[in-house]
Amino acid sequence: MIDLFEVSRIFNAGKPNQFTALDRVSLTINRGELTILKGPSGSGKTTLLSLIGCMGRPTSGRIRLNGIKTSFMPAAEASQELDISSLPERFLTEIRRNNFGFIFQQFNLVRGISVLENVMLPAYPGGEKFDTFRSRALTLLDNFGISQKSATRVELLSGGEMQRVAIARALINQPEVIIADEPTAHLDSKLSIEFMKLITGFRQAGKTVIIASHDPIVYGEPLADRVIEMRDGQMVTGQS
Amino acid sequence: MIQHPAVIALLSSATIISLMVFYAAYYGYKIITGWDLQSGSEQQLMLERRTYLISTVIGYAMAFQLISLFLLIYTADTLHPLFTGAMCAAGSLGANSFGYPLLLLKVANAVFAGIWLLINRLDSKGYDYPLIRSKYRLLIILTLLLVVETWLQYRYFLNLKADLITSCCGSLFSSSSRGIAGELAALPAKPMMVLFSGASLALLASYSYSIVKARGWYLFAAASLFFFITASAALISFIALYFYELPSHHCPFCILQGEYNHIGYLLYACLLGGVVAGGGVGAAEKFRKCGSLQEIIPGFQRRAATVGMLFNGTFIVVVLARIFTTSFRL
Amino acid sequence: MQSINRHYNILDFAIASLLRRKGKNLALLTIYTLIVALIASLIFFVQALKREAAALLQDAPDIVVQRLMAGRQDLIGLENIDRIAAIRGVSEVTPRRWGYYYDPVFGANYTVMADAKLAPQAGMATVGLGVAKNQRIGPGDIFTLTAADNSLILLNLEKALPFESELLAADMILLNPADFGKLFAFPANAATDLAVTVANPREMVTIANKIVETVPGSRPIMKSEIIRTYDAIFDWRGGMMLLVLAAALLSFVIFAWDKATGLSAEERRETGILKSIGWETGDILLLKFWEGTAISLTAFLTGVIMAYIHVFFFSAPLFAAALKGWAVLYPAFHLKPFIDPYQLSTLFFLTVLPYTAATILPSWLAASADADSAMRS
After folding, report:
1. Are A86 and B37 in contact (CB under 8 A)?
2. With CB atoms counted within 10 Å of each terminal CB, which end of chain A scores lower, N or C?
3. Contacts of residue B38 in chain A, CB cutoff 8 Å?
4. B45: distance to nearest CA of chain A, Å?
C-alpha cells in the first residue's frame, strides 16, 4: 500500500547546520498491517511518519501510494499507483485528510472548544455537509464511551478522555491508515495498555496502522506485524 | 487637483493595490525562474507557499479593482458640477484627455484580472501545476497594466481643474461629435438592434454547439467577446434610450443612478461576468493538452460557459423586459 | 455544493474562534469601529452640507449681475434692468439690495436685505434664527440697529425665518426697503445686484455673454458657478480633514498589522494543529478571510451607525467648527439624513481596504506553518 524507495529528508540543505533526518530509507508497508517504528528520539521516526502521512515531501527518493481515494485523479489511475514525492501541498493535504488519521504525542486538541467540535475539525475543509459529519462524530464519541462529554471543553478532560477524543478525531474522515506518534508518552501504563487494545482492534478491523514509539508496551505488542528499529535516520532492522 | 474624499480614496487605494500586485509579481518572477516541482528542497516549498500568497493578493486586488471601477464612475458623476457644461460622469471624464483612457483601461484590467483568476483556479486543480510559468508571465503583464492604470488615474485627477469648459453628455454623445463615444452613438439604432440580436443568437448557437459536441470553445470565447463589444455599443446606441425614455440621451453612466434603480450595476456586472467567463473558456482551451489538466478542462469549460451564458442571458432578459414593458418607442 | 459547505463550515469555525478570543479582538474592533465612525462622520457631514447648500441655492436666481468698479463690486444702476430684460431669453430681472451690518455689542456680522414681501411696512423686520438667538429676541420684541447717520432705527420683530435650511439664512435680517435705505444711506436709483431669471437653462452661457456686452463693466454670475464654488469649498475642506485623519488611519493600520503579526503561542499552536489534521494553507487563509470579513463587517456597520447618530442626531459636534465655519454665528441646525452607496463605497476604500491590505501578509505567514510542526513541539 505504501512504498518508499531511497527516501531522504535533509533540513537546512547547504547551510552549516545541515541535518539529515532520514537517510535513504526504503520500506514497504502492506495493507492491513500493524507496523511499529522504534528507536530513540532523533532517530528519524517522526520524520518518516510525516513523509508517509503526506505532511511533507522528501528531499530525494520516491514515495508511492496504492489504492487511495483522491478527487483530483481519475479513480482507476489513483487506485493503481500514485507517486506523491512531488505533489504540491494542496494535493498532499487532500490525500492526508481522506486517507490518514493522526494521533499525536501531545493529543494536539484545540483548547477552548468542545469535544465534539474537536472531533469534527478535520472534516471542516472537506466540504461535507455539517450534519453528516456531526452525526458521524457523535457515533464515534459513543463508541469510545465519551458521548456524555461531547459538549465539554477539552481542557477539562482527564488524560484518558483526551486520548480517546484524539482517537475519535483521527477516525472522523474514515481513513484507511492510522498513524500514531508516541501515542503513549503521556499515559500511565494502564491507559497505555488500553490504548494498544484499541489499536489492535483497528488492525483487526482491516485498517493499516503505523506507530512510532520507544515505549516497550507499544513495541512489545505481540500482534504487531512488523517492528522496525531506527537509528540516525536509517533503518537498523526490519523484522517481519 | 480636487480634494474630494472619494478622489483621495481612489488614489490611495490604487496605490495600495499597485504595491500589493507588484509585490506579488516580484515573487511571481521568482517562481518563473526557480520553480522545480520535482524538488523537495526548502526553497521550492517556500515558492509553493508563495503561490497561496499571490493568489490571495490578486483575489483581493481583483475585488477592490471591480468596486473601484464603479467608484470612479460615481466620483466622476459627483464631480460634474465643477465643470461648466458637464451634466454627468461623461462630462467629468472628458474634462481632460486621461479620463476615457483611464476608464477603458480599468475595464480591460478588471476583465484581465478576472480571467487570470480563472486560469489560476484551473491551474491549482492540476496536481502538477502545469500552468505555473504561463500564469505568472501573464501576472507580470497584468501588473504592468495595473501600474499604468494607477499612473493614468493620478494624471487624470491631478490634471482635473474645476471650471474647464467640457462637453456634457448631451453634446459628447450627440451624433455629430467625434471620438469613441461619439462614434458609438453614431451607430444608428435599427442596424444596431439587428447586430445585437445577431450577437445574442450567435452566442446561444455557439454555446449549444460547444456543450453538445464538447468542442468549438475558441468559437464560444470569440462569440462572448463579440457579444460584449456589441452589447456595450448597443447599450449606448439604443438600450439606454429605453431606460431613460428619452429619444436622444445615450449616456452610459446615468443608468447607474438611483433614478433608474441602479439597473446599470446589474447590466454592467452581467457584461463583465459574461466576458470574463468567456475569456476563461478560451484561455482554458489553449491549455487543454497540459498534463493533468486534460481531465479537468472539459468540465471547467462547461461550467464556465454556462455561468457566462447565465450572465449574458440575464443581460438580454433585463433589456428585453425593459423594451417590452416601457411605453417608450423609438 | 462542496465548496459552499467548505465555506460554511470554515465560516462557522471562524466566528467561533473570534468569540473565543474576545479580549484580543475587542481592542482591535473598538479602534477599527472608531476609525470608521470618524471617517464616516466626515464623509456624511460634508455630503449633507453640500446637499443643504444645494437645496438652498435651488431658489437662487439663475444669474446674478454685479457691476464692477475698478475691479471691486459697486452698486448697479436700476437703468440696466430694462436693458437686460430686453435680451432674448431673459424672463425676469429683479433688483436686489443687501449688505452687511456689524453689531459691535454682540460682536456679530449680519446679512441685511431689503425685502418688501417679508417686511411690508417700515419698522417691521424678519430675522434668521441665529440673529434671534444672538440678540435674545423673539417675535413681537423690539430691537435697534444703528443707521449710517448714527441715528437708531427701531424695529419690530415679525418672525424668525421659516427657512428650510438654516445654514445660510441664520445671520439674515430682512427689512422694509425704506428702512434699508435709511440704515445704509442707500441711493434710491441703485441696487446691490440684479437677479436675472432665464427661461431656458441651456441658453444661460449665451445670455451671460450678452449681458456683458449690453452692460459694460458688469459681471454676471451663474447659479451653477455658485453651486460649484460651494461644492469645491466643502470638498476641499473635507479633503483637508481627511488628510489630517490620515495620520489616525495610518496608526490604526500599523496597529492592525501588529495585531495580525504578533500571534500568541496558543494561536500558533492552533494553526499547527489544524494543518496537521488535514487543513491546508488555503483553508487557513479562508479561515483568516472569514475572520477578517466578520471583523470588518462588524466595525463597518457599527461605525456607520455611530457616524449616522453623530452627524444627523447631534449635528457632528466634532467637525462642525472646522467644516462649517465661515459665519460668526454658528447656526443650530439639523442636517437631513442622507446616505448613499457612493459614500459607503468611499468609506470602504478608506477603511476596509487598508485594513485588509495590512493583514494579508501576516495571515499568510500564519497560514504557512509546516504541517508537521505540531509533531515536533
Report:
1. yes
2. C
3. 86
4. 8
